[in-house]
Amino acid sequence: MLIPIEQLVFLCIGFFIIATLYSSVGFGGGSSYLALLTLVLTSFFAIRSIALVCNLVVVSGSTYLYFKNSHAKLKDFLPFVLASIPLAYIGATFRLKESVFFIILGCSLILSALFLAVQTVEIDKSKKEVEDYPNYLSYVLGAGIGFLSGLVGIGGGIFLAPVLNHLRWNKAIKIAALASFFILVNSVSGLFGLITSDSLSLPWRETICLVIAVLLGGQLGIRISLKKLSANGIKRVTALLVFVVGIRVLLVNGLGLF
């Protein structure tokens, strides 16, 4: 599968920008990779596979730096990922119609963005910065979002982070770190799901070029996050990115209105 060189350059620039922005809030950018790939590729399996691999590349570097800078502790994250891994694998084995896939993805992203946006304007000083929740909630959230992430072919952090921020599970930087780690393990699980269901399709030229683009963008973005963004800054950037992508995916890819 070869696409014209000018389209490949366009994709590389777009993927670099997406990786920079998304990695700054702990995400891999899978939802936006999907949206861009649909503009130039016709194979749904290739679109899903490339987005998942690029996701994996970005969050691998982000996760390493979050742990290195002590923003992540494995024991806090294990309940989420232990429940999500098998469900992400199961979700990835489902063969959805393309329109159904994009409708589910678009609606999920829009709801996640609205959840997160509300928090940035909430002014309730009586609430604690971090709330306490029973441990089983981590397993429930991990399982549900893991299945959804496998179903749509992205890591799931873009769904998890708004929910955890709304619940005040922890500080914004730690939630970003969890989202990154969550995406990492779910992307690996989802990749195995694609392989076992014979749905993996990776055109080598396009995949190599796009992986290099997201690797560079991801490393730039995570360093911006660690040094520059405040807690509310992380939330606002996250909400805006998620909402814009959700609207586009729903209207253009899901309902075919434009």
TrEMBL record:
GO CC annotation: what is one?
plasma membrane
Its transmembrane ranges are 7-27, 33-65, 100-118, 139-163, 175-195, 207-226, 238-257
State its location(s): Cell membrane; Membrane
Which membrane topology describes this protein? Multi-pass membrane protein
Sorted UniProt keywords = Cell membrane, Membrane, Transmembrane, Transmembrane helix
- Pfam name, any one: TauE
- The source's superkingdom equals Bacteria
Concerning PANTHER family, the annotation shows: MEMBRANE TRANSPORTER PROTEIN MJ0441-RELATED (PTHR43701), MEMBRANE TRANSPORTER PROTEIN-RELATED (PTHR43701:SF5)
For this chain, the family text in UniProt reads: Belongs to the 4-toluene sulfonate uptake permease (TSUP) (TC 2.A.102) family.
Protein name from the UniProt record: Probable membrane transporter protein
Question: Can you name the source organism?
Answer: Maribacter stanieri
